[in-house]
Design a protein that fits this description.
The protein is mostly helical. The protein has ten helices and no strands.
């Protein structure tokens, strides 16, 4: 396999598009396996995709084909770290202020704001929020119903909830920050 990868890398350096395709297919399982160890579950697919894009763009700059494996794992690790930083980079909102704002808002207003927040979601996010939070299905039941991977379901749910939260905070940001 190392010989094959070395030959594929040499082919990519010569501009062979088929060699690049085969190299990406060949290293995908290794990238995924490494991402499983270094990324949060919801970030694995993103890390794999981003790593393969980096490989496609920069494999020609490798001086020694034998260093490909260590370079590949370094790229995966960095992508996992970048995604984790990105996930944690959202605005820090003090939970007490957030809770106080929601506790003081009239129920009818909160319902209207929540309805608007849900309507603003893309269909695939809305669907997963409704299934989980309103129909109270488990993640496993959602995976079966939507026929999607577990990681995708978790990622969509996390992202959908974050979008709803951002919408709600943004809708009355001036009141919330007082």
């Amino acid at each position: 396999m190392a010989v094959e990868r070395s030959q594929l890398i040499q082919g990519v350096k010569r501009g062979d598009a088929l060699a690049l395709d085969q190299l990406l297919v060949d290293c995908r399982a290794d990238v995924r396996r490494y991402a499983l160890r270094h990324c949060a579950t919801s970030e694995i697919d993103d890390a794999v995709q981003e790593t393969l894009l980096v490989v496609a763009r920069h494999v020609t700059s490798l001086r020694v084909a034998a260093s490909f494996a260590s370079w590949l794992f370094t790229v995966v690790r960095r992508e996992c770290q970048r995604l984790s930083r990105k996930m944690l980079a959202h605005e820090n909102i003090e939970d007490e202020k957030f809770e106080a704002w929601f506790a003081s808002a009239p129920t009818a207003e909160l319902r209207a704001e929540l309805a608007c927040a849900l309507e603003s979601l893309p269909a695939h996010y809305l669907e997963i929020v409704l299934l989980r939070d309103f129909e109270e299905l488990t993640i496993s039941e959602i995976v079966d119903r939507l026929n999607i991977p577990l990681a995708t379901a978790k990622s969509r749910l996390r992202r959908a909830r974050a979008l709803v939260r951002d919408y709600l905070i943004g809708s009355d940001e001036h009141e919330f920050t007082r």
